[in-house]
Amino acid sequence: MAELTNQAVLERLQSKFGAFISDVEEPYGLLTITTTRDQIIPMLEFLHADQDLQMNFLTTMCGIHYPSNKDKELGLIYHVHSLVHNVRLRIKIFFPISDPVVPTATGLYAAANWMEREAFDFYGIKFEGHPNLIRILNVEDMDYHPMLRHYPLEDGTREDKVDLFFGR
Amino acid sequence: MAEIKKAAEVKHPANPVHGSLQVADSFNNELTTLNLGPTHPATHGIFQNILQMDGEKIVSGVPTIGYIHRAFEKIAERRPFYQITPLTDRMNYCSAPINNMGWWMTVEKLLGVKTPKRADYIRVIAMELARIADHLICNSILGVDTGAFTGFLYVFQEREKIYEIYEEICGSRLTTNMGRIGGMERDLSPAAIAKLRTFLKDFPKVWAEFETMFNRNRIFMDRTQNVGPITAERALNYGFTGPNLRAAGVDYDVRVMNPYSSYQDFEFDIPVGSNGDTYDRFMVRNEEVWQSLRIINQALDNLPEGPFHADAPEYYLPAKQQVYRNMEALIYHFKIVMGEIEAPVGEVYHSVEGGNGELGFYLISDGGRTPYRLHFRRPCYIYYQAYPEMVVGTSLSDAIVILSSMNVIAGELDA
């Protein structure tokens, strides 16, 4: 069996999802691509089913918030892993904070259940079709999503903690 | 959340081992709601399971977690790299050195720091000791939950000795905060080596005795074999890693798949199970302890000469004596303590084989003094989701045993 390279993975994906793949990078050897939220589930399904790639292990997924990226404030980052070929792939999707709805991956990965609940809890990302989308780590009556960047860690009214020299 | 239903109305999922449940003739045709936890002696941590019971059989289970959620990912966004290690200590507190080293390696990958061999070997020794401590607790607690208390008290003395070795390596015991960017904070002292040698001489006898007590014990086998099995396919779908996945027969081990910290220098085996049941998980952990001992022996015998940290003064906290006498050291000390080390813009994922699975760190740096985003892949957070599926159809006493054998650590679950 020939060794699977990042280049081969990318070519395989581009032959299928060519127009939907952007921002191809390789930071520290890990192939990273960006796609759209409509394509994320078909892409995960393709990676899962494809006999050459066999990327059928969802290592982790997490949300992210970039307040200054207009209409792409929120994001989700999936890490999938082909245990057979030992190749990892990082897939990112970005979408506006005003419309934080993403299709769920729970149909494909049972592991995605709590990961998505965590992303909902932290960032308020709503997963369409999730069987039980409620908060997981924070209390149920919390009325905000604490990992969004506009919630500071420290009490905003305190002035003795302002650090003019070193910033955050 | 918990409501009483007529037993006849509840749809019973088929369990691969126990088959579908026969419930029609239960008392009053009603289900009982049982709160297992949050503070129950058998959960070994603060988390809750709301079980629907039909007599002694479990019909459904709903886990509730987050009781010790401390928002580490949020806190990490305000902390320089050196101040994040204490957070990692408090995730899987049974094997804190692995978490520490995983974090240092992630930062080193981002900064491009290459560690010398001696530092790698000392790290391997610390990590394998942590693995022994972790498996030792998990397996002996499993014994307690099946009614055998003696083994637990017996091997816990050995954990104390491991903690004494930690003390010699880094000065602390449970939350170790061990190591630095680029290596270790100090070299292995003669006292540490002496304690390691004594441990390596004495511990195998203790562990062999522990195994004699359990491995072929009829009662223990009856309590654990075919209890809570999971197939390899389901385990992969649930994102299992570590001993729990290997017990199901998948030989995925990060130490072999993506060697870090010079693991490729050592010879060791990866034990795998076949049924993925409680007994297999127990046996895989038992064998991994022997393999860890093998690795420590090799690391100690072949400990390379040379520096115990990388020559990276801008990242490696200088020795205190130097800070008082040397201008550069003083400047670097100040900059590092104030978190003013220069980090490149980039993102890096690094994972290590933790006590209970692939412990991953996903770090996004925007060039500032703190991470822009830091996500921890906590193995037990991911595999604990499978618990309801594994306990449905079993009895309450089995559910306790399954929980113990999964090695769920509340600190890591909630982060």
From TrEMBL, chain A:
One Pfam family this sequence matches: Complex1_30kDa
Highest taxon of the lineage: Bacteria
Transmembrane segments: none
Record domain NADH:ubiquinone oxidoreductase 30kDa subunit: where: 34-155
GO MF: NADH dehydrogenase (ubiquinone) activity
Family stated for the protein in its record: Belongs to the complex I 30 kDa subunit family.
Entry protein name: NADH-quinone oxidoreductase subunit C
Organism phylogeny: Bacteria, Pseudomonadati, Bacteroidota, Cytophagia, Cytophagales
UniProtKB/TrEMBL annotation, chain B:
InterPro entries per the UniProt record, alphabetical: NADH_Q_OxRdtase_suD (IPR001135), NADH_UbQ_OxRdtase_49kDa_CS (IPR014029), NDH1_su_D/H (IPR022885), NiFe-Hase_large (IPR029014)
Alphabetically ordered keywords of this record: Cell membrane, Membrane, NAD, Oxidoreductase, Quinone, Translocase, Transport
Residues covered by the NADH-quinone oxidoreductase subunit D domain: 145-414
EC number(s) on file: 7.1.1.-
Reactions accelerated catalytically: a quinone + NADH + 5 H(+)(in) = a quinol + NAD(+) + 4 H(+)(out)
PROSITE patterns: COMPLEX1_49K (PS00535)
Membrane topology: Peripheral membrane protein
Cellular location(s): Cell membrane
UniProt xrefs under SUPFAM superfamilies: HydB/Nqo4-like
GO cellular component: plasma membrane
Broad enzyme group: translocase
Gene3D superfamilies for this protein: Cytochrome-c3 Hydrogenase, chain B (1.10.645.10)
Domain of life: Bacteria
Pfam annotation, one family: Complex1_49kDa
Record keyword rRNA-binding present: no
Molecular function GO labels: NAD binding; NADH dehydrogenase (quinone) (non-electrogenic) activity; quinone binding
Role this protein plays: NDH-1 shuttles electrons from NADH, via FMN and iron-sulfur (Fe-S) centers, to quinones in the respiratory chain. The immediate electron acceptor for the enzyme in this species is believed to be ubiquinone. Couples the redox reaction to proton translocation (for every two electrons transferred, four hydrogen ions are translocated across the cytoplasmic membrane), and thus conserves the redox energy in a proton gradient. NDH-1 shuttles electrons from NADH, via FMN and iron-sulfur (Fe-S) centers, to quinones in the respiratory chain. The immediate electron acceptor for the enzyme in this species is believed to be a menaquinone. Couples the redox reaction to proton translocation (for every two electrons transferred, four hydrogen ions are translocated across the cytoplasmic membrane), and thus conserves the redox energy in a proton gradient.
Subunit architecture: NDH-1 is composed of 14 different subunits. Subunits NuoB, C, D, E, F, and G constitute the peripheral sector of the complex.
Protein family per UniProt: Belongs to the complex I 49 kDa subunit family.
Protein name: NADH-quinone oxidoreductase subunit D
Taxonomy of the source species: Bacteria, Pseudomonadati, Bacteroidota, Cytophagia, Cytophagales
Underlying gene: nuoD
